[in-house]
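We read letters as residues; the integers encode the fold. Take this protein.
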Amino acid sequence: MSSSKVCFKCNQEKPLDDFYKHPMMADGHVGKCKECNKKDVRENRAAKIEYYRSYDSERAKRPERMKLLYEVSKAWRKADSRRMKCHNAVARGIRKGTITRKPCQRCGSMKSLAHHESYDRPLDVTWLCQPCHKERHKEMKILDSGGNMGTHSSVRTGQALTKQETDNERKRLLQTSRLPDNPTLSMQQLRRRNRASILLWGW
């Protein structure tokens, strides 16, 4: 049996590992490669986003999903104690009126969540809807894998940043703001400019 096949969608020959398995197919794999499958799923979801959001909302209410959500939330809180502190700080700010919930800064959805670029800054938030929030976390993981400070846990709790950590933070802010560096700008000024650029670029 051949160890590769041609995807009927992109017409590229790829290893069988690049195709999802299917017991009803002659070679045990579907005819469309994984990348094309993923692309089709993303495009279909984007075209019917309201339907899928409604479906996801109803599915989340199922008992098995509620149980899974509890376990995931428990692990999420345990992984970094700063998370709940930040969550509670934002909730208190909203109740007191010192923080105002805003539309998603990428797509404009009114169903927004407070996203923290760093859990060391509890009230420094960006407002993102659930889908955009997930996308931002994916971006942060990608940045982190490249040596930049992409994930919240890369900032050490309650300690001043080292020069290397500060340099990495600066690189991350410059990359996400898409604006040229200015050595005279402080880190606080860079963070403000980064938030402004999110509004400008829809990032």
Summary: Residues 147-151, 153-161, 197-203 have pLDDT under 50 and may be disordered. Residues 63-79 form the longest helix (17 residues). The beta strands are 4-6, 13-15, 19-21, 29-33, 112-116, 125-129. The two ends are 46 Å apart (CA to CA).
